[in-house]
Amino acid sequence: MYGTGTDKMVHSARVPLNQVQIQDEFWNYYIQLVRDVVVPYQWEALNDRVGSAEPSGAVRNFKIAAGLEQGDFYGMVFQDSDIAKWLEAVAYLLEAKRDPALEEIADGLIDIIALAQQDDGYLNTYFTVKEPGQKWTNLAECHELYCAGHMIEAGVAYFQATGKRKLLDVVSRFADHIDSVFGTEPGKLAGYDGHQEIELALVKLYQATGNERYLRLGRYFVDQRGQKPSFYQIQLDERGGKTHWPSGNEAVDLEYNQSHLPVREQEKAIGHAVRLLYMLTGMADVAAETGDKSLLAACRKLWDNIVSRQMYITGGVGSMPQGEAFSFDYDLPNDTVYAETCASIGLIFFAQRMLRIAPESQFADVMERALYNTVVGGMSRDGKHFFYVNPLEVDPKACGGANRKYDHIKPVRQEWFGCACCPPNVARLLASLGEYIYTVQGNTLYTHLYIGGEAALEVAGNKVTLKQTSNYPWDGKIKLEVIRAEAGEAFGLAVRIPGWCKEASLTVNGAGYPLNDQTMINGYARIERAWQPGDILELRVEMPVTRIYSHPLVRANAGKVALQRGPLVYCLEQADNGPHLHEIVLPRDAEFRAGKEDSLLGGIVSIEAEALRLRDEEWPGGLYSSEPAPGMKNDTVKFIPYYAWANRGEGEMSVWVREQ
Predict the structure, then answer these.
(1) Which of 61, 134, 528, 584 would bridge with 492, disulfide CB 3.0–4.6 Å?
(2) Last residue of a domain, one of 408, 436, 464
(3) Chain centroid offset of residue 140 CA
């Protein structure tokens, strides 16, 4: 129907995690935190053994569905997905480094999941335990295909990590069942998922098994979305108007789940942010595997709308709490923002898939922005507290008070959530970080992220081991050393010059290498030569403190400025600057002092500047006055990286500051 048949586009394959060993001062902390704290803590939470956190019920639901325990289903209709994402995170940890004790826990959970699967391959604890007669009757709201997709991702990841097929066979049987239910053939449901996820998962299953049925099914779900008449409305009528959620609008608000138009006809990002980004990830995957150029063009069109008109400076997306959704172009409020952690993770997934197809630095720039700011900021440094929502301005007095518009904003991270999608999503992304650093396309090895360690890759038949060393993101000195290059034939090494960087230099074995129109391709400096062991490429990207301004149509930031240094966005926090951050004004000629503080927040580079602050103590009295605001007093202010805020207790925070 679309594209060029089943001819694959030239695109990069996934980099196995056991071929990338991360050794990086910044990221080792977080990866080890995921292994030592986050995954064990989440296992306890999923088993309802964290007394101070909201109960999960997720493991118990599977035990009930498996006939191992008696009881009622507990939690959200999509509770199974928490288990799947946790298992996927475990799989990535095991792929990077074997851990027999963790593997034994995972194997035991997989045994329970297999017992919970029904004879026809169906697997969903909500509909097995609570509503056994209602399978596939409410696709708009009930997340069956979403949960299926996450379990498929877990099955593929666990097989890749351990070689064990049990969960892969479970999810393959489930995918076979789904294939028997859905399609345009007589007797099948011509429907699609309310929360996109199955599409990208089926492509992963196809890549792991080689079974083209799964790719065709994934493509079907992409192509079927938005066809008329609305399948959701048809099902709603068949249910006599019965809805799962009290609001009951998911079947009729077609923009919310991006089913208002076929995906190729959608012009701008709209609706639930996570759903859109998972959909785009699946679209990019299907485009790459089928050679569908129209689908890739649709991906680019929506990418451009997101990053040029609807993305926060932190890489957060989804500006409004109503529907956890995109709103309209340039609507980027800071204090009522939603910017769900999962949405930034979805943006990273989408960016990575676009990089695999087209190594253009714009995709890596956004991937880096979301990773270093919103995603890392979504988890506390203790690994046990999480942000669901990532605001850019917080006044704790407004949170949880009578003004309901701030109900979704939390001034400190939470231990767990009734809807706990974000914590295991952070875990699985950080556990798989090695996948995002490099890609190989043709005879070129691309470096997208500056994260230290060694990678063993194959480039045009040449087995290459590359060692990366840096102190990123604190300074911009990056060294790439060729440890091994077997064939002795020429191949390309390409390094990204970040979009935020105004001045960069490059040397190869100490000799300067020009950065010009001939050597720069789509934001990457590419050097092709017969690389030899011991060859060293050194990149230096300057990291001055930079003032960032918004597009004039972003009302929330009119007259304001934000600070960025390297990939890191900075913010003011009450812990450093006292209350009433809105009174601070940054003169346009203020000079910045960036300095390393090893004892602060795990070691950061902070920024200090001489600023001005309103003399509120000199206000003449009353709520309003005919006299202008009193003068300013001099003050020294400190900015810290945005990701590190809210690790020192409750207080105000602001990314954007008034500028004089």
Answers:
(1) 528
(2) 436
(3) 23
State the helix-helix crossing angle for 422-431 and 25-33, rounded to 10 degrees. 130
Residue 583: pLDDT above 90?
yes
pLDDT of residue 3: 43
- Domain of 392? 17-436
The answer on 577 and 468 residing in a single domain is: no
Question: pTM of the predicted model, to two decimals?
Answer: 0.96
Q: Residue 31 and residue 166: Cα distance in Å, rounded? A: 27
Report, as residue numbers or ranges, the catalytic residues.
324, 421
CA-CA distance, 445 to 494, in Å (whole number)?
6
Residue with tokens 């009729």: 252
457-506 tens-digit pLDDT: 999 889 999 999 999 999 999 999 999 998 778 999 999 999 999 999 99
Shared domain for 253 and 368, answered yes or no, is yes
Write the Ramachandran bin of 66: left for phi over 0, alpha for psi from -120 to 50, otherwise beta.
alpha
Q: Would you place residue 453 in the very low, low, confident or very high pLDDT band (cuts 50, 70, 90)? A: very high
Phi, psi dihedral angles at 71 (to 5 degrees)? 150, -175
Distance CA 135, CA 123 (A): 10
Q: For residues 420 and 379, is the Cβ–Cβ distance under 8 A? A: no
The total number of structural domains that make up the chain: 3
Cα(410)–Cα(389) distance, rounded to whole angstroms?
7
Same domain, 515 and 609: no
What is the tens place of the pLDDT at every residue in 292-340? 999 999 999 999 999 999 999 999 999 999 989 999 999 999 999 999 9
CATH of the domain at 294: 1.50.10
Of 248-252, 416-420, 540-544, 635-639, minimum mean pLDDT range: 416-420
Domain closes at, from 541, 575, 597: 541
